[in-house]
């Protein structure tokens, strides 16, 4: 708990100095909302559907308010295995950039942290099957975030979105697959789903019935979460629930960044276990994927 408090205190300080702004505080919010410095996103506690004893597990989150009045659509941003923070403990540039991009469209944004409350800082170096935070955990987090958003007076509960990257993209798939009992029972359901380079194997093998329209964005050179299972997922989708997929030639994992491509030898998973994986940006894929993401979301938010 002490580590969590120190992290949150540092984050609020860093976010107050960051160029990204969160807009004015909403007129009415759940009791879990905490004060933040002017111009910074609001620190919030979001109940997961996972319980600890008699109480729900409370997750750290950062709430970016859209400019303007009235009820607005809202998106949950789901981080990858590295968590939502950078090496300095600040909210990662990817999260801040996308929050700003989406706010410009007039949409609220919630960045959700599934790791800190569970005593973890990253999952990337943990083998799949032994990870301390499982996909079942993250699915319950995403469903809890949707419920939290639906209770807000400034949110249009009929226009909610799950958007994730890598492990967070896999969470989007898991939290929208109606073959899971908890997903089928949960309300509200999202209006749209976006997954950047997710791992698609698990939901492909299970059988995927999406609760909302889905846009997949994958790199064909990805050797961490390969594109092929995602292509198969889209190909097998019924005509009544089609899945849109965009494939980017020469793009590795994390293509929507400006970072150079490097090989991470500390990652035990991937196409060639034990040999590491490639991660890094691709300028063409970065631009094309964001353009496609915004077009898809604007289509679905009508």
TrEMBL record:
Signal peptide from the UniProt entry: 1-24
Species, as recorded: Roseateles subflavus
PANTHER family registered for this protein in UniProt: DIENELACTONE HYDROLASE DOMAIN-CONTAINING PROTEIN-RELATED, POLYKETIDE TRANSFERASE AF380
Pfam families per record: DLH
Domain Dienelactone hydrolase: 62-299
Name listed for the protein in its UniProt record: Dienelactone hydrolase family protein
SUPFAM superfamilies per the UniProt record, alphabetical: alpha/beta-Hydrolases
Keywords on record: Hydrolase, Signal
The organism's taxonomic lineage, starting at the top: Bacteria, Pseudomonadati, Pseudomonadota, Betaproteobacteria, Burkholderiales
Annotated GO MF terms: hydrolase activity
